[in-house]
Amino acid sequence: MITINDKNETYVQLDIDSEEDFRQVFDFFTIKIPGAEFIPSVKMGFSSGTKKFITPKGELPYGLTQKLVKFCEQNDIKVQDNRTLLTPEISFEQFKQFITLLDLPFTPYPHQIKGAYEIIANYRRILLSATGSGKSYLFYLVFRYMIFKQYKSMLIVPTIDLVNQMYTDFEEYFYANSNKLKKKLQECTDDIEKESIKSSLEDIYLKRKQTKCLSIEENFAKIFGGQDKHTSHICKISTYQSLSLSQDRVDPEYFQDLDAVIIDECHKASADTIQDILNCSTKARWKSGGTGSLGDNIVDNLKIEGAIGEVKKIISMKEMIDLGLATKIVIKPIFLQYDPHVVKDIKTMNYNEEDKFIRNFRPRAKFLARIMNAIDDNIMLIYKNIDAATTILEELIKLKDPDRVFNIKDFRKQNDLKVYYSQGKTKSTERNKFRQYLEESKGCKLLGTQSIIATGLNIKNLPFTIFESIGKSSTLTIQGLGRGARLHKDKKQSTVFDIVDDARYYSKRGKEYPNYKYKHWQERLDIYYSQEYFVDEPIYIHLSEDII
User: Fold this and answer.
1) What is the pTM of this model?
2) Cα–Cα distance for residue pair 281/385, rounded to 1 Å
3) What distance in Å separates the CA atoms of residue 475 and residue 527, rounded to the nearest whole number?
4) Integer distance in angstroms from the first to the last C-alpha of the chain?
5) String of b and e for 332-368 (b: at least 16 CB within 10 Å)?
6) Are 297 and 291 in contact, with CB atoms under 8 Å apart?
7) Which tens digit of pLDDT belongs to each residue from 309-320?
8) N or C: more exposed end of the chain, with fewer CB within 10 A?
9) Contact, 474 vs 296, CB < 8 A?
10) Can you tell me the distance from the alpha carbon of 248 to that of 257, in angstroms, rounded to the nearest whole number?
11) 548 falls in which pLDDT band (50, 70, 90)?
């Protein structure tokens, strides 16, 4: 029999009266580290290459408790849960009634209400909700409740861009109706109608007073860079980097008065970073996270789940498309095929050598530039390597203006060709401008690195995307697809051109030797099918070094 007892906010204590039961659960929570065979200490026999989630003393990360219970049920192991479980302090019906007091600009979708309540009622949750499902609106509902109850809360996001975007979104949600009424009042000439508008504004103010939130500015603080982290605001929005304990940017005591810690895009934070922050948040009852997709590394996923809690699916991209909440996504593979002598050379290369060769292959860059130039609508190319992107950009400018002297700096800002280039060093203010240009214009070309563009950038007017070298990561692939899924009045579908570098080598006997890039495509195809995306018939393009 296994007894689960409270220990602290990080671990539960397991009392196991059978050595056989202990061995079963210990083995279940011992996971091989992906790629362990390449770790020097494993090669030399100094390490087993595994991560053990149960300590020899029987301590298990708090968030993995449900996994333990399910395992015991499936293996006929008796389990008794003696934890002091927190009961919801508000019912679902009461929460829906509370939402009616928030003067929202539009009615939340059922999955947003459900997700917000999952966090509030269950305290420890990871919400799995598709990219574009409106997590900022969901979080807004959660934080308005936290303000109403006067709970000190923190929202942690991966980038400064998302700090600004989240804060701006909250402002728009809060002030939308009152700003419309104020503008209407200024333009109104009828005295009776004026009184009606004033009455509506008074009603909004009373609701704000009732929910203890008179303004966004008084309640929310943005924490990043060199800004003062110690503020009187009840809610803070910050980045993982700004709160790093390993770099001594904050004192562990900084988190000890928090009642709630919500981590957005939790798949992007290193598991250790999440654990450091949550372990220091000793008072926090709420420890929750949200993500569009979990990563491929099972060890990192279990560490994140252990630190936060059970994963709860809210809505998938397929469900959003079926409900008309997202644009239909069509994946169009483009197979780039190479001359036989090039294929023979690629066969002898390791991954890094192949990757370098392909990204420097000029005919490939020319072809990708031609795709971007041929499309009259907005298109974004998500690239992996700066060298490859620079070459593609240079070829694109030649097509658009052959007489122009190429200077990459000209395209990190607004320009007459409507071609924009974003990478790690691009300031967040500039990246937000790129988003604005695409929303307000047509025919824009945006080249952006995976880490900057593939996650967290909200561009509705984006009907075309190119995966230049997205790799095999399910997280990057799914998040990248989500960039074009947002609804826009002028967009009927989102077309994603998936570039497949097909340099398969065939022996005289017909044996196939797939190159690394092609293997990555096969893994992406599995992701597309598992997520029920529509994959169109491929286009085959022969790339020759003779192409001018």
Assistant:
1) 0.84
2) 38
3) 10
4) 73
5) bbbbbbbeeebbebbeebeeeebbebbbebebbbbbb
6) no
7) 999 999 998 899
8) C
9) yes
10) 19
11) very low
DSSP string covering 70-93: HHHHHTT--EEE---PPPPSS-HH
Strands 419-422 and 235-239 turn out to be unpaired
β-pairing, 286-291 with 328-338? Answer: unpaired
Residue that has been written with the tokens 């609508």 in this structure: 377
Tokens of 508: 């005289």
Which pLDDT score is estimated for 366?
A: 95
> Largest Cα–Cα distance of the chain, in whole Å?
89
Nearest to 169 by CA among 111, 88, 112, 250: 112
Q: Which two tokens stand for residue 92?
A: 């679902």
Whole-number Cα distances in Å, 140 to 99, 113, 445: 11, 11, 32
14: its two tokens? 């397991």
Start-end of H helices in 386-530: 386-400, 428-440, 450-453, 474-482, 516-530
Rounded Cα–Cα distance for residues 191 and 167 (Å):
36
Q: What tokens were used for 159? A: 């980038």
The pair of structure tokens assigned to 446 is 């945006």
Residue 298 one-letter amino acid = I
For residue 16, the surrounding DSSP H or E stretch is strand 11-16
User: What is the rounded distance in angstroms from the CA atom of residue 48 to the CA atom of residue 43?
Assistant: 9
Run of H or E including 385: none
The tens digit of pLDDT for each residue in 350-369 reads 999 999 999 999 999 999 99
Q: Please report the pLDDT score of residue 439 as a whole number.
A: 86
What number of other Cβ atoms are within 10 A of residue 537's Cβ?
Answer: 7
> Which of 117, 122, 125, 126 has the alpha carbon at shortest distance from 92?
117
Token pair recorded at residue 343: 């294929």
Classify residue 531 by its DSSP letter: T
251-303 residue pLDDT tens: 888 888 999 999 998 877 767 778 888 888 888 999 999 988 887 788 888 98
Phi, psi (5° rounding) for residue 501?
-85, 95
Tens of pLDDT along 205-221? 999 999 999 999 999 99
Closest CA relative to residue 310, chosen from 122, 142, 478, 136: 122
Angle at 334 between CA 331 and CA 339, to 5 degrees: 165
Q: Are 382 and 484 in contact (CB under 8 A)?
A: no
Which DSSP symbol is given to 9? S
3-state secondary structure of 265: coil
- Other Cβ atoms less than 10 A from the Cβ of 420: the count is 25
DSSP string, 135-170: HHHHHHHHHHHHHHTT--EEEEESSHHHHHHHHHHH
